[in-house]
Write a structure and sequence with these properties.
single chain, 1 helix
């Protein structure tokens, strides 16, 4: 009997590994950020409002409260192949900018050129996967993927660095003399 049980355990299929996602995907996940623009500090909160799963892709809708500028809810496509910004305004972009492309190795590059991008939205982006780094922010220390980008926004170009941690998403961003860091992360229920 013991032999039969042991053979069942040996030949049982292994449980499927869950994909590593670099964005919050549980309704109620709450991220509090500290945004520093030279000598001004602003705190704002992002909360997952919905997470719709279809064909291995989760479309996450995030609300922002007390952000540096009035910003409507945003939608992000989340999957094991990365992150894409579907909307930063009420209408979806036809060709969304890719924020993170997976799998990637240090030095891998990708470009995004969204169609129908309105004023105040990303009109082009060239990104490079830098690698995995330890990054310390007020919320703690994370092993995060670093992506360096050159972003076109309403005719202006600037450089930006983003750090994404598994299950949490953006933990740090540096662009145009501004720094955004995760102050706290509270998982949804």
């Amino acid at each position: 009997m013991l032999y039969a049980l042991a053979s069942l355990l040996l030949f049982a299929p292994a449980p499927e590994a869950k994909p590593v996602l670099y964005y919050p995907t549980k309704i109620g996940d709450k991220l509090v950020y500290e945004f520093t623009d030279r000598d001004k500090r602003i705190e704002f909160t992002e909360t997952v409002l919905s997470a719709e799963k279809k064909d291995g892709v989760i479309t996450v809708t995030i609300s922002r409260k007390d952000a540096p500028a009035d910003q409507p809810a945003r939608k992000v496509k989340v999957s094991e192949t990365g992150l894409a910004l579907l909307a930063n305004d009420p209408k979806d972009l036809q060709t969304p900018p890719v924020l993170l492309k997976l799998p990637s190795e240090a030095g891998d590059m990708w470009k995004s050129k969204p169609e129908n991008a309105g004023l105040g939205t990303i009109t082009g982006c060239s990104s490079t996967f830098v690698g995995i780094e330890e990054v310390k922010v007020p919320a703690g220390q994370y092993k995060a993927i670093r992506v360096d980008s050159v972003i076109s926004l309403s005719g202006e170009q600037f450089k930006a660095s983003h750090w994404y941690a598994p299950g949490v998403g953006l933990v740090k961003m540096v662009a145009r003399g501004r720094i955004q860091e995760l102050k706290s992360f509270t998982p949804g229920k």
